[in-house]
Recover the amino acids of this structure.
């Protein structure tokens, strides 16, 4: 049960405002804990993506190779994925970045692409996933623009183009080079 009327961040009810008080049900608490502990469960139950053929929002169904990627991400600090285009590796990784951002404090996640527009599009996919989560599973938003999301848990997700000075001076928890 939401105890305050959610006007959302900057008036958008799909973005959880940082001061929204939620009285969680026992079931919601169990779901949050399960999502924190199990990325694949979080994906299967709550993540939604845009179907490119129909432009509709659909549940994210993981392919067997994506489940293997999850194990690799969990066990290794540095991962390079060599895969063909349009096989779902980026959308899977974006869902993983969202999961890390939602359920960990003070992470700096950087999405880097060869062009600024590409980095922004990648961040936009992450935003779409966030928007379609239930309000009680979301972190409150402190910043929401074309190049950055900041959650109330201290996590920041940035989109940047490759450059000689990109993200200089910041310590990144995760860098996604696409």
């Amino acid at each position: 049960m939401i105890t305050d009327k959610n006007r959302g961040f900057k008036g958008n009810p799909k973005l959880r405002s940082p001061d929204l008080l939620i009285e969680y049900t026992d079931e919601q608490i169990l779901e949050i804990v399960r999502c924190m502990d199990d990325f694949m469960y979080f994906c299967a139950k709550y993540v939604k993506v845009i179907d490119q053929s129909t432009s509709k929002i659909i549940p994210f169904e993981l392919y067997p190779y994506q489940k293997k990627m999850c194990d690799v991400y969990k066990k290794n600090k540095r991962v390079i994925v060599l895969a063909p285009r349009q096989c779902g590796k980026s959308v899977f990784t974006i869902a993983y970045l969202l999961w890390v951002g939602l359920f960990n404090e003070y992470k700096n996640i950087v999405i880097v692409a060869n062009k600024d527009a590409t980095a922004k599009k990648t961040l936009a996919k992450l935003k779409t996933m966030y928007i379609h989560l239930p309000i009680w599973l979301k972190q409150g938003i402190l910043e929401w623009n074309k190049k950055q999301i900041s959650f109330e848990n201290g996590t920041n997700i940035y989109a940047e183009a490759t450059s000689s000075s990109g993200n200089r001076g910041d310590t990144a928890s995760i860098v996604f080079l696409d």
DSSP finds five helices and seven strands in the chain. The CA atoms of residues 112 and 160 lie 5 Å apart.
